Target: YiaAB two helix domain-containing protein
Amino acid sequence: MSTSGATTKSTNAFLAQAAIAFGISFSATIIGIIYLPLDIWQRGFLLMTGLFLVSSTFTLAKVVRDQHESSKVNSRIDEARMEKLMADHDPFKMPG
Model:
């Protein structure tokens, strides 16, 4: 009843795609804000909200990842306890 220690890992291509997509979308947002026909304070407001959106997105992703990893650890601890109980149990042992 042992479980394999295989973990899912993203490929380098997926990591590169995610990084490139983030770079393009962030750059396009900044360039769009710069070229909007607005006053400087309006551009500054849009820039600040864009940066806040990016930072809160990273924070949310980290929290979701941490919760998922925590649930995996708890599940592994429960599995290890059950395996130990099953290994220690001897159905042919006489009580007393």
